[in-house]
Amino acid sequence: VVCVCVCCVSVCLFTCLSLAWLSTCLPACPLCVAVQTVMTRLREGLQKVCAEHGGRLLHTPNNSISMGLTLGHLPLHPSGVTFLGSMFFSRNVSGTRVISCDAQKKIETITFKGYGAHHDCYPEPYLTAAAAIGMTENDVDEFVRRLSKTLTEYKKVVSKSKQPPAAPTQPAHSKHMTASLVAEDAVQRIMREAVNTVLGPR
Questions:
Q1: H-type helices in 59-136, by residue range?
Q2: Are 92 and 85 in contact (CB under 8 A)?
Q3: Is 33 within 8 Å of 41 (Cβ atoms)?
Q4: 2-36, pLDDT tens digit by residue?
């Protein structure tokens, strides 16, 4: 037999109804609204970057302040995909982390696989971008613009690093010397033919 106190049920029901009423009457927190607005703008911007450069915007419904963008489709720089992170840093883009997912770090007797990543064995590298308190939609637009530009430059840098080295060019004075030697050989050949014609072959 389960006994239920009518008074307790009445108090709980009244409390729930009161909270529901307050949530509809009281204004929302300005900071929460601002972060949600920036997150929406950031999501839209990253989706445009994916459409332009490839990659996939990770689905992270439990993370309300940051997002992830996969980088496995990008060509690999000789220094690794984290070279992209250094390009962001030199272009005054802070807060973005490029995670290779294959790094390992050993501290004492413990080895951390996928060091710096959110999972030990995530299958591809990715970058993270966060919508922090204080950011504006203009900040997000500028970040998306620099992100797209940096990805384009990264592809060019990797493409150049994979090209075979160009053959060394011959100096100008060396070309003149070669031409002079060819002309001298021609003169000597003509003189030998003339001597053979007059005196006969030796």
A1: 83-90
A2: no
A3: no
A4: 344 444 444 444 444 444 444 454 456 777 777 78
